[in-house]
Specification:
Blueprint: E1 2-6, E2 17-22, E3 35-40, E4 43-49, H1 64-73, E5 78-87, E6 97-99, E7 102-105, H2 133-145, E8 151-152, E9 155-158, H3 167-176, E10 180-182, H4 188-194, E11 198-208, H5 224-244
Parallel strand pairs: 1-4, 1-5, 5-11, 6-8, 7-9, 9-10
Antiparallel strand pairs: 2-3, 3-4, 5-10, 6-11
Helix pairs in contact: 2-5
The chain binds hypoxanthine.
């Protein structure tokens, strides 16, 4: 079954025919909200809103372990994570949809592993390619089928938030090789890999990163939600095509 983790601007899926909701308790505490089960074009899907259905949970307080454990426990084998980002690379302007292929992790103080010596034997997962290449390819195929533009590849800088970055931090991240910046990409991706889930991200650029383009003097948050809303309509089209493909 395919799981979808919705981010900012995607707290529900309009094209999901809901069958039931399930409140879960996990060994890691409570997920961000009840899991929503349903179908998109007759294909079973489970959905969770990363920040809660009322968008009240900040990125550093999301219980990533509980969310992924719950999805895995309920039979998900693939996870498509939708996330908003700031664009660093020149072509990553607001409204652009991108499927990143790399991650640089700058987060700290989050519970970042299931292998903490308590209940699982230590395993060092390979994380060379943090996103599942097959799931990435399926998303890009689905975008083509849906006639939606989607950029193939880019490095996602995962930052702690909730504050936005300084212009110098963005320059540093760019020098490090980052193309976009967001607050929720980690530890979500590595926890998914620890559970053996196939995981990929659809990133929606909702603003120029600090000090770039229209954010030269400041990041103007007023425009972010409108950009996110309109871009999420395109993401929904991609997801609708994606669930029709084999692989879940
Ligand atoms: N920085 C960090 N996270 C973000 C941004 C940003 O500019 N935009 C959306 N998520």
């Amino acid at each position: 079954m395919l799981a979808i983790i919705g981010g900012t601007g995607l707290t529900q899926l309009a094209n999901l025919q809901i069958t039931h909701r399930q409140v879960m308790r996990t060994p890691y505490g409570e997920p961000s909200g009840a899991l929503t089960f349903g179908t998109i074009k007759q294909h079973e899907v489970v959905f969770i809103a990363r920040h809660g259905y009322g968008h009240t949970i900040p990125p550093h307080r999301v219980n990533y372990c509980a969310n992924l454990w719950a999805l895995h426990n309920q039979g998900a084998n693939s996870v498509v994570a939708v996330a908003s980002v700031g664009g660093i690379r020149d072509d990553l302007n607001p409204g652009v949809i991108v499927v990143p292929d790399q991650i640089i992790d700058y987060t700290y103080g989050r519970k970042f592993t299931f292998f903490d010596g308590l209940d699982r034997p230590l395993t060092h997962i390979d994380f060379t390619h943090p996103y599942c290449p097959r799931l990435r390819a399926r998303i890009l195929d689905a975008a083509r089928d849906a006639n939606e533009k989607c950029v193939d590849g880019g490095a996602y800088a995962a930052v702690q938030g909730p504050r936005l970055e300084t212009a110098a931090e963005i320059t540093r991240y760019e020098r490090d090789g980052a193309d976009m910046v967001g607050m929720t990409g980690m530890p979500e991706a590595s926890l998914a890999k620890e559970l053996g889930l196939s995981y990929a991200t659809i990133a929606v650029v909702v603003n120029h990163a600090a000090g770039r383009g229209s954010s030269l003097d400041a990041v103007h948050l007023e425009s972010v939600s409108a950009v996110a809303q309109s871009a999420m309509a395109h993401v929904r089209n991609i997801l609708e095509c994606l669930v029709g493909c084999d692989g879940d």
